[in-house]
Amino acid sequence: xxxxxxxxxxxxxxxxxxxxxxxxxxxxxxxxxxxxxxxxxxxxxxxxxxxxxxxxxxxxxxxxxxxxxxxxxxxxxxxxxxxxxxxxxxxxxxxxxxxxxxxxxxxxxxxxxxxxxxxxxxxxxxxxxxxxxxxxxxxxxxxxxxxxxxxxxxxxxxxxxxxxxxxxxxxxxxxxxxxxxxxxxxxxxxxxxxxxxxxxxxxxxxxxxxxxxxxxxxxxxxxxxxxxxxxxxxxxxxxxxxxxxxxxxxxxxxxxxxxxxxxxxxxxxxxxxxxxxxxxxxxxxxxxxxxxxxxxxxxxxxxxxxxxxxxxxxxxxxxxxxxxxxxxxxxxxxxxxxxxxxxxxxxxxxxxxxxxxxxxxxxxxxxxxxxxxxxxxxxxxxxxxxxxxxxxxxxxxxxxxxxxxxxxxxxxxxxxxxxxxxxxxxxxxxxxxxxxxxxxxxxxxxxxxxxxxxxxxxxxxxxxxxxxxxxxxxxxxxxxxxxxxxxxxxxxxxxxxxxxxxxxxxxxxxxxxxxxxxxxxxxxxxxxx
Length: 529
Known about the structure:
Blueprint: H1 12-22, E1 26-31, H2 40-46, E2 55-57, H3 69-84, E3 88-93, H4 95-98, H5 104-110, E4 117-119, H6 129-144, E5 160-164, H7 173-187, E6 190-195, H8 201-204, E7 212-215, H9 218-232, E8 236-237, H10 244-258, H11 263-266, H12 273-278, E9 289-294, H13 296-310, E10 313-319, H14 325-334, E11 340-341, H15 345-355, E12 359-362, H16 364-373, E13 377-379, H17 398-425, E14 479-480, H18 482-488, H19 493-509, E15 514-515, H20 517-528
Parallel strand pairs: 1-2, 1-3, 3-4, 5-6, 5-7, 7-8, 9-10, 9-12, 10-11, 12-13, 14-15
């Protein structure tokens, strides 16, 4: 394990909480020390849920370690059942309680409760949140989906499917569901069960009645879908419908499994993204350098949208979801780049600096990194903060999701262009903040400045000549002369960081303690060769 200020994923029991919180009639008893209840804030504060998660903690303290913590756990499980009367329970241990090795599953089984009790073995020191959510959902489906059922003949009846993957604290999961349901309704396909979100343990027992499954978020639902395919003979669609192209492929794949015609849905798909990509205005975006990082589902989908539907140039692609590293590396190779597979935000920051993108698409961590580097950024993946759970309808999936993505990817660059123009003209004698309207400006005959006009700036003093130094001091970053710093600000914001880094590298290699205007232009000429 590693101590860090930020983390992309919590421990696996947070993933289990996401599944339990999304469902109804399910209760989670977590063997955990006092203090681990911080996880409630993730749902009540960040996701703004109206009720706390259905989780009961044992909250043992240091003095309890000298006693019988196993008995404490059994008492808490029995009390939670009596209080909440759930349809099913899941039990497990947090990363701290895992060290005690009390065997929550065996202890709960010994109580003989009249409901299913599913034990979770979530190795907190080897796995993380998304894996924990996937494992929890898989265990629930395996325990509660029941025996295979004989489905009615397909002729003359409406086909049905299950929607798998949406959880609590999921990035735009609520809104994605609305879009996918609308598409399926237009195709004439019934939705049998949505799980985990909104499902009860009894609903999981009806999963086998559907003709096929749709995996919306592979990190969460792939393992469960593979089990249902093997145990219940249900094929599944795993095309993630993010972007116009992927949504079109998704509709075609679903229509093929259901034996229906996709043409009515695909005809006149309601998205403005293809129109803009063909417009003259889009030429401003063509070839913009973009760095994408997030969970595998969103990183892969957004990278394809950025490269193939908007015309950006992908200069960075990565994920913190190590279980999907192979797919991300394969996608990165198609763009001639090396994937960034890491869960250390400092490594991601270094990769962003090295790639020198003009736009970053990532998590809330990349938002902070990009702000510090002066690069436009948009959030496209969890982990996110409260502003990324909007009250309005804001999906990423489906054709309406493509419209939202269009705004998400384009607006930061457009606002960045405006910011650059403001910065470029801020010091201009006619356009600076203190200048009066041009029709009022004139120079009186006495030689004084016009009323409301700022006096002309005095010429800058000549910059001192570069001084060469030797020894240890040469490895330090050179300082900037005032005229060079002013000239640097004229460079567009999205490449200013790269220009600064190149000039400092040029000065460091030549042991120059001061970067002058001449040094800046020499560095530009050197690195442009």
